[in-house]
Specification:
It contains four helices and no strands. The chain has about 90 residues and is mainly α. The termini are close together.
């Protein structure tokens, strides 16, 4: 799948990871930049044409190996759908 580069920026990727993925589970006191390191990587992945499956796998790896907070497959899929809604994947 090709990425349709619409306004693709790391700030928006970070916001989606914070608001949709959020494996830590905090909302009220979560710093805006909590997932910035992951957002930078996902942003680069999107810009180079990573597929939804590759993005999902990366998020799962980060949950398991970096955070120890595994979320549902549904949350990872919701991230993919949020990216699709931005036009970053072909449908």
């Amino acid at each position: 799948m090709k990425v349709k580069i619409k306004p693709l920026n790391v700030v928006t990727v970070n916001r989606i990871l914070r608001d949709v993925w959020n494996p830590i589970g905090f909302h009220d006191d979560l710093p805006e930049d909590e997932y910035e390191a992951y957002a930078t990587t996902v942003h680069a992945m999107l810009r180079t044409g990573a597929t939804p499956g590759v993005i999902r796998s990366y998020l799962l790896d980060m949950e398991i190996f970096a955070m120890g907070c595994i979320v549902s497959d549904e949350k990872r899929q919701n991230v993919i759908e949020a990216f699709r809604a931005k036009g970053w994947f072909e449908r």
